[in-house]
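Milestone M4 deliverable, item 7.
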Amino acid sequence: MNSVETTITALRQRTEQTLEQYLPPEGQTPQQLHQAMRYAVLGGGKRIRPILVYSAATAVQADLAQVDAAAAAVELIHAYSLVHDDLPAMDNDDLRRGRPTCHKAFNEATAILVGDALQALAFQTLADNTLLPASSRLQQVRVLTEASGAAGMVGGQALDLASVGQPMDIEGLETLNRMKTGALIRASVLLGALGRVDITAADLTRLSHYAECVGLAFQIQDDILDITSDTATLGKTQGSDQARDKPTYPMLLGLEPAQRRAGNLCAEAQAHLEPFGERASVLSWLADFIVQRLH
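Output delivered:
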């Protein structure tokens, strides 16, 4: 294992410990809700978004302790989105991370409440982070709010649901995916960068461009894996996009052109990191990982 992979492992462990700290104990009333929240959040996952938070903080020389709350908050939002996306009214999935989805393990009403509670907890976590001044916390809340709402993830999900069985060009698909997937990945990077109180506008812009490229590459690779991988490897149902007649990059571009597009976006993302030098080595590694992952 090289030094970057060692760092990734350490950041993943830090994420697990931080999430454990912020989630309510399962024995606390209402017990079933808290058990289901922990089931949804602590059930594995790559933790790419919190690792992006920590890695962006490292790139701008911010203290990791100052962005623990942000790392937890973005993963709580991500977990809530997965719980709601899996519901019968949305994607109607039975499997997530190799286990029954939240509404299957508990019930639909509990899953809806889990999503609601995780979203609220995410913003409480940011607001309560006294290691940052109020002005920085307000910036972080604004970044995560915009990425999570109608202008970001939720709006992207609405477009995604409306796209099933409908014709769509590549520009429309990229708009959808920049909102549904890319917005929260971009927010992760910006939340980490805002751990430095005196972050420059130029550095924020560079990291924002990096994140936009990585976010789009992430979704392209997801679309590719829906065709090329299998259910056991993915931890969710393989071929579900095709079964629902959802527009994807391989469908619109072809498999090989989609793979080239993801690779080009990875290279573009890494180019935006050059001014940060070695401090951005983990961000650079993550760009490669996102387009080479198998699940």
